[in-house]
Amino acid sequence: MTTTVSASGLSLRYGATRALDDVSLRLTPGVTGLLGPNGAGKTTLLRVLATAVPADGGAFTVLGQDPGTAAGRQEVRRRLGYLPQTPGFHPDFTAFEFVDYVAILKELTDRGARHREVRRVLDQVDLSEVRGKRIRKLSGGMRQRVALAAALVGDPGFLVLDEPTVGLDPEQRMRFRELIAQAGEGRTVLLSTHQTEDVAMLCHRVLVMAGGAIRFDGTPAELTARAAGRVWNSTGRDPGAKAGWRTGTGSFRNVGNPPEGADLAEPTLEDGYLLTLDDAGVRAGVAA
Ligand SMILES: Nc1ncnc2c1ncn2[C@@H]1O[C@H](COP(=O)(O)OP(=O)(O)OP(=O)(O)O)[C@@H](O)[C@H]1O
Q1: Disulfide-capable partner of 258 in 58, 76, 196, 232 (CB 3.0 to 4.6 Å)?
Q2: Complex-level ipTM
Q3: 0.80 exceeded by the pTM?
Q4: Stretch (H or E) spanning 116
Q5: Are 11 and 23 in contact (CB under 8 A)?
Q6: What is the distance in A from the centroid of ligand 1 to the CA of 20?
Q7: Beta strand 80-83 with 158-162: parallel, antiparallel or unpaired?
Q8: Whose CA is nearest to atom 26 of ligand 1?
Q9: Strands (E), 138-238
């Protein structure tokens, strides 16, 4: 399988905070999910790989190019698409104008060819009909699709998506997932998300980060399997549980070390994720 991104020993400190702590990874075509609690270092990793900030240590290549050199960095920037956590829209731009502006920044200099490319990516995200509308008039889901269209300009070989489904209602999220799945056909996508369903539905591989380090790297099925035999139902809160919550039926669902004779339940990817964080000494939602 082709390696699109190869990184070894990436580190980045902000004062005393190790935002990235010796991160090594290899990314191949398809969608790889990046899960982790707030402050885990996900955005920092994406920003480093997208060449938006340099790492303090370590090295990486994207599509065979070394972003450590000026020429390599320029080539990587031409060939990657990046949807940041807060896309910097100009609200008075129309969808077309915004994507066209990004296309200019990506050095698509021929006006006719560039406009064809802008129409192509807007069509790909189902926004052809509103391309003349101002961004401030579009719904949150549509804006996110404009940002995805901008990231897709120039058919990048590596696509970096930072929490793209945040704030979307379930229907919009489902639609956005379809677009991500489409974008991941034959292309390498790194998707940072807090939604374990995004990973379960879209990803061939998942990385779990906490405290700046990768704590798990495998398939979604392998992450789920980590919770096999460690999820159970009980009538009250179980003291042996690492995490437990009351379900809609009134019983408690627990993850951790079940007592003898516990009523074991089928594990989900979220259970595997919670236990991975716990094994790493991190509680979900709290950085190490
Ligand atoms: N520019 C910065 N200056 C100082 N500290 C920073 C900066 N950017 C990130 N950090 C710190 O680095 C750590 C990792 O942050 P990062 O934003 O990468 O986490 P994250 O996993 O993306 O979190 P979230 O899910 O909340 O977006 C955090 O402790 C954060 O406070």
Answers
A1: 232
A2: 0.95
A3: yes
A4: helix 111-124
A5: yes
A6: 10
A7: parallel
A8: 38
A9: 158-162, 188-192, 205-210, 213-218, 231-234
